TrEMBL record:
Lineage start: Bacteria, Pseudomonadati, Spirochaetota, Spirochaetia, Leptospirales
Gene Ontology cellular component annotations, sorted alphabetically: outer membrane-bounded periplasmic space
Domain (DUF4384): residue spans on this chain: 196-281
Protein name: DUF4384 domain-containing protein
InterPro entries to which the protein is assigned, alphabetical: Curli_assmbl/transp-comp_CsgG (IPR005534), DUF4384 (IPR025493)
Species for this entry: Leptonema illini
Pfam family, one: CsgG
Length: 334
């Protein structure tokens, strides 16, 4: 189990591999006309999270078997509000007039706003002789971020059970670290397209404020979580320093000034970047000292919801009232 490999590189090599990414919020899906209203706030409790589940794409057709199983899983705990299918169907009918194929995260976020969902689940299925291949992604409507995802293949019943358990665990993990009273929203942006072992990765991040009186300088921590749950602090680091960042300004890791690049290494599978923003320094895992010379692992399991509940408990104990958390999830392929 390796942490993300951070290799030194001269600047012209970095320039040849870095992909220029579009500005945040620059996409509008064809076939939909939207007037963007006030941003939604995430709920403080799991029961207040309206979730919409789209029909999954299966080639040129749609498949309801996996969405139906996921709806069943979400209804059992009684913690989630499921958006009525009729609302989704009405929006999908309009969407089909303007586009076809898979629904990307920006389009999903727009659909979510139209139907009153805070999260929208999209995915794909493929029926094979061996059984079923299926994948889902959970899109956070406010930011268009993919905050949870998984993929499974095998016998149909096994796949459905795995994806049901995975979805409940990841929602528990994500919603378990939340501060609905925060004046901030965290935006994270990864390159578009599939990410493979050996690729170099740059993440853009930005903190925006919804309250004029909120501090204009904040501290942000970024943790890389690999497919095995190994959680590594990648920002701040000895290159970036440990000073606060400016609100409403975009940053990136690695930055243009850094003489290293972030190379993706095995294991393959679902990986995440977890961000935590505070108005005062908070060394959540006692890793800042090591971070002045390396990129330290936290020693915590990044797939365990208890890790994130522990972060929230510590932030509340330290009286960090305006903190905010966010994450983005992606699949690392071979």
């Amino acid at each position: 189990m390796k942490a993300p490999y951070l290799s030194k590189s001269v600047s012209y090599v970095r320039g040849s591999v870095r992909r220029r990414m579009p500005e945040l919020f620059s996409h509008t899906a064809p076939g939909l006309t939207l007037i963007f209203a006030a941003l939604f706030l995430m709920p403080g409790f799991l029961s207040a999270a309206p979730i919409g589940i789209m029909p999954f794409q299966s080639g040129s057709r749609t498949d309801q078997s996996v969405p139906s199983a996921l709806i069943t899983a979400l209804k059992q705990p009684g913690r989630f509000e499921i958006v009525e299918q009729s609302k989704l169907d009405a929006v999908l009918d309009e969407l089909k007039r303007g586009q076809s194929g898979l629904v990307d995260s920006e389009t999903a976020a727009q659909i979510g706003q139209l139907v009153g969902a805070q999260y929208l689940i999209v995915g794909e299925t493929n029926r094979t002789e061996a059984g079923l291949e299926a994948a889902y992604r959970v899109v956070h409507v406010e930011t268009s971020l993919i905050v949870a995802a998984d993929r499974a293949s095998g016998k149909s019943d096994d796949v459905l059970q795995r994806l049901q358990a995975s979805l409940l665990r990841q929602l528990d993990l994500y919603l378990g670290l939340d501060n609905p009273d925060s004046p901030y929203t965290v935006l994270l942006k990864l390159p578009e397209g599939p990410l493979k072992v050996g690729d170099t990765l740059t993440i853009k991040f930005k903190v925006i404020s919804h309250r004029p009186s909120a501090p204009k300088r904040v501290y942000i921590q970024l943790y890389s979580i690999n497919a095995k749950g190994v959680m590594t602090l990648i920002y701040p680091n000895r290159f970036s320093g440990f000073s606060p960042i400016e609100v409403d300004r975009e940053y990136e890791f690695p930055s243009e000034k850094d003489d290293f690049e972030w190379e993706l290494v095995p294991p393959t599978g679902m990986e995440s970047i977890q961000a935590v923003v505070t108005t005062e320094p908070s060394d959540l895992f006692q890793t800042f000292t090591k971070a002045r010379s390396t990129f330290p692992e936290t020693g915590r399991n990044g797939h365990d919801p208890a890790t994130y509940r522990g972060i929230q408990v510590q932030l509340n104990r330290d009286k960090r009232k305006d903190w905010k958390a966010q994450r983005v999830t992606y699949e690392l392929q071979q």
